[in-house]
Amino acid sequence: MVSVIGELDLFTCPRLREVLDGLAARKRAVVLELPAVKFMDSTGLNLLVQATREARRDGWSFAVGRDLSEAVSRLFDLASMHEHLPFDDAS
Question: Does the pTM of the predicted model rise above 0.85?
Answer without folding.
Answer: yes
